């Protein structure tokens, strides 16, 4: 069932905030201890509203969106993205932090070209380092300026600042922006790991 029309506001950046009236009631459910099934359901509902707005704007601008999941957290937004961007090719990027630096380990995404928008999806943007690394790699591989955008549900103040320092004109769409980060490095009020949530939690076996 499709979501009804939603309020959206744009402020310089450009930053598009899509926060339906019921969104703030959901926010408290993301606090620790957070039920991962509830977090996944809420994220899908919020992402549906957000990506409906983003997809429409990209299409209206003549540059339809090609969603690219930033692993692992962005996986929570993929079902909504595929509903919002029907028939669009999509891809993924896998990045890891090694010795303090974000390294792109693997990517499989539609080749960027002037007629599409490479729409990065990441549920929680905390430091902004991963998004900057992905954008720099796209730039290095010949992506045209202005061909990318970012959609996330949670955006910290420091994350946006980090992205804007390198890519000041990147279009960003989110539900909540300007979020603070606690002393533990986690986004204040958010008690779940989006990557763990995307794969169902539980004990994980990871390598390398």
Automatic annotation (TrEMBL):
The family database entries (Pfam families) matched by this protein are listed as:
UPRTase
Phosphoribosyltransferase domain boundaries: 64-186
Q: What superkingdom heads the lineage?
A: Bacteria
Stored InterPro entries = PRTase-like, PRTase_dom
Task: Please report the name of this protein according to its UniProt entry.
Answer: Phosphoribosyltransferase domain-containing protein
UniProt source species: Glycomyces endophyticus
Q: What is the lineage of its organism?
A: Bacteria, Bacillati, Actinomycetota, Actinomycetes, Glycomycetales
């Amino acid at each position: 069932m499709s979501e009804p029309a939603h309020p959206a506001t744009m402020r310089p950046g450009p930053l598009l905030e899509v926060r339906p009236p019921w969104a703030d009631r959901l926010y408290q459910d993301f606090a620790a201890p957070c039920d991962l099934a509830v977090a996944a359901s809420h994220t899908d509902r919020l992402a549906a509203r957000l990506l409906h707005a983003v997809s429409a704007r990209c299409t209206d601008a003549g540059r339809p969106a090609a969603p690219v999941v930033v692993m692992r957290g962005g996986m929570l937004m993929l079902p909504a993205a595929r509903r919002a961007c029907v028939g669009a090719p999509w891809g993924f990027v896998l990045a890891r932090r090694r010795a303090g630096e974000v390294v792109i380990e693997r990517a499989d995404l539609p080749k960027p070209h002037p007629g599409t928008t490479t729409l990065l999806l990441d549920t929680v943007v905390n430091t902004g380092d991963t998004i900057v690394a992905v954008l720099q790699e796209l730039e290095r591989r010949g992506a045209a300026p202005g061909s990318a955008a970012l959609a996330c549900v949670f955006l910290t103040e420091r994350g946006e600042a980090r992205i804007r320092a390198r890519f000041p004109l990147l279009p960003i769409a989110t539900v909540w922006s300007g979020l603070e980060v606690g002393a533990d490095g986690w986004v204040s009020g958010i008690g779940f790991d989006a990557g763990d949530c995307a794969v169902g939690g539980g004990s994980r076996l990871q390598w390398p």
